[in-house]
Design a protein that fits this description.
This protein is mainly alpha-helical. The protein has a domain at about 40-95. It is about 70% helix and about 0% strand. It is built from three helices and no strands. It has helices at about 10-30, 40-70, 80-95. It is rod-shaped and about 115 Å long. The model has no long low-confidence stretch (mean pLDDT about 80). Belongs to the FlgM family. Keywords: Bacterial flagellum biogenesis, Repressor, Transcription, Transcription regulation. InterPro entries: Anti-sigma-28_factor_FlgM_sf, FlgM, FlgM_C. Pfam families: FlgM. This is Negative regulator of flagellin synthesis.
């Protein structure tokens, strides 16, 4: 029996191509650089932590004001109060 064109079907060649493709993929994976990304949820948590510090300062200020009011030592700055209320009265008189 005579076999013609033995080079036409080469079972080793597809294996070699597959192995070479895997090697190239490994090289690409190993050459990647590390990346860090922060999710939206993590950003919100960071903001919440920062706001909790502000909330603690605000709570301390409120507690201090409560103590001053209960002790009768709290003084209202009338000029400052009038300046902050003036825009509201101007709006209502224009309507």
């Amino acid at each position: 029996m005579k076999i013609n064109e033995t080079g036409r079907i080469n079972p080793i060649n597809p294996y070699q191509r597959n192995a070479e493709a895997q090697r190239q993929e490994q090289i690409k994976k190993s050459s990647r650089k590390d990346e860090v990304s922060i999710s939206d949820e993590a950003i919100q948590l960071l903001k919440a932590q920062n706001s909790s510090k502000i909330d603690a300062e605000r709570a301390n200020k409120i507690e201090s004001l409560k103590q001053q009011v209960s002790a009768g030592t709290y003084q209202v700055d009338a000029a400052k109060l009038a300046d902050s209320l003036a825009p509201y009265f101007k709006q209502s008189s224009e309507n």
